[in-house]
What does this fold into?
Amino acid sequence: MTVQTPSYILFYKPYGVLSQFTREAGHLSLADFGPFPKNIYAAGRLDADSEGLLFLTDDADMNHRLTDPKFEHERTYLVQVEGVMDEQELEQLQKGVLIEGKLTKPATVKVLTGEPDLPMRAVPIRYRKTIPASWIELVLHEGRNRQVRKMTASVGHPTLRLVRTSMTFLSLDGLSPGEHRPLTVDEQRELFKLLHAF
It folds into this structure.
């Protein structure tokens, strides 16, 4: 009997694409990209209107260890928001904000002085002439539903664009929207070491 080797793939999800293999409401899905191995799925989703790193695998244990909140793995996001956050609002995000009756875990927040080097989005960002936009980098250790958008909205700054740039030490480096690559042997080894340290 042949034992199939698990697949571990990094995918740069473009704007408007679902983090699943079936289309819904006219959105493209992962099935429109690839080709990917059978029985593979995303470990931690991104909404259709978010972009960035997806980790695809058919390894259920790996999926669990990457997504279960008790493991608290870092997820880094570049976030364009409406307006400019002041120190008090940034501190609120760092300490935790109340979302649906539950406080978010402490986060790391950094204001970016310029616009990050990201590919142009297929659908332009909506701009309001009277309100400036700014960018922050947000590092979370949990992955609640639409958490980043709810966090920035809770301090009065709706999210305009959201890009996940990394999960643990894995990043978008070398990938363009719609591209994917398998993890190297060294990356697999390091990821196993990290995830099984808990």
